[in-house]
Design goal:
Length: 360
């Protein structure tokens, strides 16, 4: 569990998200199938400049696949991805190259995402070399030193190799590499899950500080809801390849509408031990279905404690409800609907989270 402290994400970047520019990211009806595996099945989202959107859901829901499609590490089956207003979905590799400056990605495991044969300086400077531009070798070295200092490392680290560094330091190198080209959009794919709990908070605080100071948009892919509450402005909830709820952090955390979102939040440990002991939580039965053969109708109906016949046969549209988007037949247009947390059972208490977890 993360132990981030400080000011949570509230759209406090030093830029105006509206500033007359197109959104940093627009995704429309994105589909990614691997043969018969329907990993991502028609999702749409938008991230404005200077905002952080968290993409959450259980393992196997398709979150990381979305991130890889956006940067075109995977070629989508269909759909549109726009970076700063430019449709990059069908661009050739040559025509895509100038737009790669607009987006960078930080992977989950820094040990496997950094080339052990290269020095830190070469790793961080590689995007500058590959993307071209007017930077001389000396200018690239100065830029690498500057960004290393931005992520809390000394310039001299440029001469070291990844194996000579701790996991937290390697992830800082990964973040430096992602930011060296000054992208408009950063995709952070579970950036702290491979780190020791003791350093997770420092990396989250670093991301929050960099996002506020530099003003880039961020797609924060995670299953850690305390990190989401700390860092995100907006939240998109994904289940079995589809979005089921999307809204501001306050909307989703304070008044979730989709039963799956309610179940996720009920399972997240609370910082207050007394509240944690007295709460009722939803214990979902069964595993997430296979993306090879997803259920008909609402894909969550096989685990939903309040599903009705319509849920089993009719796919719910992701529609605007009470100021956020929700895909649920049981939620009315005014936002009223069932709260499965009221049906929850008192299970064994979660272990108390570390001191300082969540928002102060």
């Amino acid at each position: 569990m993360s132990t981030a402290t400080g000011t949570p994400g509230t759209g406090t970047a030093s830029v105006d998200p509206g500033a007359g520019e197109p959104p940093a990211l627009e995704v429309e009806d994105l589909v990614m199938h691997f043969g018969s595996v329907r990993a991502v099945d028609g999702i749409s989202m938008r991230i404005d400049r200077g905002r952080v959107m968290a993409l959450v859901g259980e393992s196997g829901s398709g979150k990381s696949t979305v991130g890889r499609c956006i940067v075109r590490l995977l070629e989508p089956t269909s759909g549109t991805v726009r970076l700063a207003g430019t449709d990059v979905t069908s661009l050739s590799r040559r025509r895509l190259r100038p737009h790669r400056r607009d987006v960078s990605i930080v992977f989950q495991d820094p040990a496997s995402s950094l080339d052990p044969r290269l020095t830190v300086g070469d790793i961080v400077g590689e995007p500058l070399r590959l993307l071209g531009g007017d930077r001389s070798r000396g200018a690239r070295a100065r830029r690498v030193g500057d960004v290393l200092e931005q992520v809390g490392l000394r310039r001299q680290v440029a001469e070291r190799y990844p194996h000579e560094m701790s996991g937290g330091q390697r992830q800082r190198v990964s973040i430096a590499r992602a930011l060296v080209s000054s992208p408009r959009l950063l995709i952070a794919d579970e950036p702290t899950s491979a780190l020791d709990v003791s350093v997770q908070a420092s990396v989250l605080n670093l991301l929050a500080d960099l996002q506020r100071d530099l003003g880039f948009a961020c797609l924060f892919i995670t299953h850690d809801l305390s990190a989401v509450e700390y860092l995100a402005d907006d939240v998109a909830v994904m289940y079995l390849g589809q979005l089921v709820e999307q809204g501001t952090r306050a909307q989703v955390f304070d008044s979730p509408r989709m039963p799956y979102t309610q179940a996720l939040l009920s399972a997240a440990p609370l910082a207050d031990p007394r509240e944690q002991r007295s709460r009722r939580r939803v214990l979902l039965t069964g595993d997430i279905p296979s993306p090879v053969d997803p259920p008909a109708g609402c894909r969550f109906h096989t685990r939903c404690p309040v599903a009705v016949e319509r849920c089993r046969s009719e796919v719910p549209a992701l529609r605007l409800v009470a100021g956020r988007r929700v895909a649920c037949h049981l939620v009315a247009d005014d936002g009223t609907g069932p709260d499965v947390r009221l049906l929850g059972t008192e299970g064994p208490p979660h272990p108390a989270p570390p001191a300082g977890a969540g928002r102060p």
